[in-house]
Write a structure and sequence with these properties.
Helix 3 runs antiparallel to helix 4. By secondary structure, this protein is an alpha+beta fold. The longest helix has 20 residues. The chain has 7 helices and 5 strands; from the N terminus they run βαααββαβααβα. The N terminus is likely disordered.
Amino acid sequence: MFKHIKLPHIDLIGYCQFITFRTNDSLDSYLQKIYNSTLPNPKKQFILDNHLDNSNKGAYLYDNKIDIFKKVIFEKNGNLYQLISYAIMPNHIHILLEQKSSLTKIMKYIKGKSAIELNKALGKKGKFWASDYYDRVIRNVNHLNVVYEYILDNPTKANLDDRDERVFTDTKTLNLFRS
């Protein structure tokens, strides 16, 4: 029998990170089963994202909630991190950024501040985001391009009509890392 070992986050200032996290209420028994499986992390993340794209569980990020998340993430852009792109899905977030601070500090800010603001807007209390998050250091230009296209295509793949409200890209920063 294999034991699930949680790998440490690779925390490299100056490097690009692909980060995904989900609302706490989006976690269901199927997601828990996949998360606890012995599948390789990239395969696991692919299955989790596909499930979330077709699930309404924990889907709070619509209309002004999208704007609330945008406001929070742009507050520390250029300070803790440099945003390259993101996709705000109804129940999860994909971010591509350059680290300017520790990954722990970045995630504590993004998830903590947005949870307070989103709970307030929704009239909710308690845990907004699931405790974990998936992160992957970008290894080369090809990897950067694959992740970037994945983020941009995610709202379209999920048939979301408000794609333009959900996606951000900073082509200037992206091109710096492509060269």
